[in-house]
Fold:
Amino acid sequence: MAGRVIVIGGGAAGLLAAGTAAERGAEVVLLEKNDILAKKIRISGKGRCNITNAVSIKDFIPHYPGNGKFLYSALTRFTNQDLLTLLARYGINTKVERGQRVFPESDDAHQVAETLAGFAKDRGVVFRMNSKAVKLCASDGQIEGVETSTGYYDANRVIIATGGASYPGTGSTGDGYRLAAALGHSVVSPFPALVPLRTKETWVQQVSGLSLKNVLATINKGNDAKSARSEFGEMQFAHFGVTGPTILTLSRQVSLWLQEGCAVTLCIDLKPALSDTQLDLRIQRDFEQVQRKQFKNSLGRLLPKSLIPVIVDLSRIDPEKPVHQITRSERQNLVKLLKGLKLSIAGTLPLSAAIVTAGGICVKEINPRTMESRLIRGLYFAGEVIDVDGVTGGFNLQAAFSTGRLAGISAVEGN
Structure:
């Protein structure tokens, strides 16, 4: 036998790490504080599980604004195609959707979770459920074991795969940070990376649930035009503010600006395919066809029904005014509004509501080629507990799978 490996955490990274280490001959015990494995996977992608992304693996790194280069070895050792091959062996066929997002054909996140658990079980991993790791034991810079809520486990190799601090109901409550910090590791303060945004404007409540496609969302820090960051795609309004893929991608930068105490604005271009002049001509054509109607009833061809009252109110054009009486100046102001619907960001939803946590174990203290601690021999890290985070679209799960795989390999081959 190759010795004992303890894996702390039964999520995406932990299951891959455990199964991989067992596959290579190690005696593996996986500690999971919940009574069910892979709880976060089961709710990911709104229950569909966005497993990975289909872009070329060489194009993955730019999709991780948080220390993406750290992942180079892990991603190239276990690629998105390697992952799909593994899942296919267990009967999971996949499909590629908009943005190269990869989902199981079944649209069932539970199937993915059960398959990953099956991968580990088939290789002989022993599961200790409802068992919380409370302390790592080390001596002379070498890991020696794990003290848990249910007993003590000797091991000279331990993999921390406890996740971040988002969705605490799934078990991600920052345990890994505390365990590593107690052995001298630095923890970059966690903050929400993919998280909905709260707005000061209350009119969002009128359009809560409305999805907009093919819009351009731009954030700005105060009045600094050079700070602008933009994302094209889909977004949704919610009773508290805004969410959706474009908003989630921008939210990491918003979090950082808010931490600096900066004012943040969001500007939505509802018609990014049209220039101001083109949109003005479009509005004129629409108005010509409904010139006897009141302004409040004239925007049906241009906007979703629920958004019309909001735009009418914000335009400051008399809603009862006949369209043919609308002035050129009023029409041009309407164009500006449609090309730049502004919202003031009041904050983000809490870290507990974030899809992904930024921050975590400092990457400078982890060997990227092995995932082993540079401070404690035999201690490895995998998944969201590391200070690495990506944009939405399957990149964060791939990072978890790849680092888990590499940690599992290294925990066996490194001894």
Summary: The mean pLDDT is 96.
